[in-house]
Structures are given as structure tokens and as C-alpha cells.
Amino acid sequence: MSLGEIFAKYPYLVTIIWVIVTAAVAVVLERLTTRWLRRFIKRTEMPPDVGNGLILTARLLIIIGVLVALLNVGGVPSDILVAFSAVGGAAIGFASTRTIGNFIAGLYLLVTRPFRVGDYVRIDGIEGIVNEITINYAKILTPANTVVSISTQRILDKEITNYRYGEESNLFCYGFELNFDHSLPTEKLEEMLDNVIERYAEKLPRKPEYQLTKLTRSERNYMFYIYVEDPRDIFILKSQLLREISQVWEKVKTSSQ
User: Fold this and answer.
1) Does position 7 have pLDDT exceeding 80, yes or no?
2) Which of 95, 117, 124, 233 is least crowded, fewest Cβ atoms below 10 Å from its Cβ?
């Protein structure tokens, strides 16, 4: 029996062969493309997050090409192909609206770069160190040593605070607020604060600072700023300063009574 007779007797063999060939070509193309992109990323010293986005985009394009090729297997009638495409497109569109939104938002973040891996940030009330940025999520290491994943689409809708001190600086400036009542005169209160801050003058790349931000009948609000090179130090220094200021504040108040 000739090859033509075999195909005529078993027409589904053509479909099977076509699927196998398409899958094999897709796998080889994906491997070659990924390998070339990784070399290109390394050669151009491209940031890892941007490089990962390029690789993901290339893989998505290959998958789309494979799906289009498979839809034409075996000469599927055009009316069936159109109907299948419409139903499948609607289902995929309904299920992946959020994913596509995250993908677009992720590309926007990778281009605009409001923060980088290693930055100390606050996003929608969540603060910590940026561990990873992908097309879909940004992963934040919090002071509680937990990792929170925030979708890139959600990030675009929220206010972002980056504590890097200047665009190209190696310092991070972190601020926090403390309130004091009027049980001590301002001069004595600030003398107490100076004594606490002076202990950190030589430990940090820049001496901590504070300033009076609000004065009311019941309290005085002060904003404190600490400067660090390693954002992980913020986790420790904030609690240390709060504890020391609180202890000295209570001690001075007690001695003044």
C-alpha cells in the first residue's frame, strides 16, 4: 500500500503528523529564541526584570502562533473555525482580562521604573523592600519578614512612596512621625531628642534629623528622618529609635514631676 493510499484510508494520520510537527517546531523555536534572548540580555546588561519580560513576551507570541497553526489542522471549515474562534476568544477574554491588565501594567512599570529591586517602598499601606518585579507582580519583603505579592495592575492605581534619597543616590531616607504632649517645655523635649539622635551620628552614613511639623493645644508632632545605605537597617533602626525615645521620654517626664 502506497503512502497516498494510507493517508486516504486513514485521513486522521495527517492531522496527527501535523500536530507532532507543529509541537516539535514550537519547542525548538522556543528553546532557540530563549537562548538567544538570554545571551542578548547578558551582553547588553539589561535589568533582570526587563529581560524576563522580553522572554515572556516571546513565549506568548510562539504560543499564539502554534494555536493559529493547530486551528487550521485538517482543513477545518471556515465557518466552524470562525465559530470556534469566537467562542474560544470570548472565554479566554473573560477569564484573562485581569491577567492581560497585569501584563500591560507590568510592562508599563518596567519602562517607567518608579522603583527598582532593592528599593524600600510603601505601596497601598504595604511597606518594605522590593524583592522581585515581574510582569504580573511585585514582591515586597515587609518588616515582619513576610513577602507580599502586589499585582502590577493594583500598583498603578495606588500611591507609591520610594524612600531612595535621590534618583542615583545609594542612601535611603525613611521618615516616621511621633507625637508628644505639652508636659515638657519644647526646649527640654528637643534636648532629649538630640541626646538620643547623637548616639546614632557615627553609626549611620548621615546623622538622623527631626523637625516640628505640627503644633496644637494638646500635642506637638515631630517628623524623624533616618538615613541608611542598606534598606534592611530600616527594619531595625525604626523600632530601636522608637523604643529609646519612648524610654527617655517617660524617664524625663517622671523626673520632672
Assistant:
1) no
2) 95
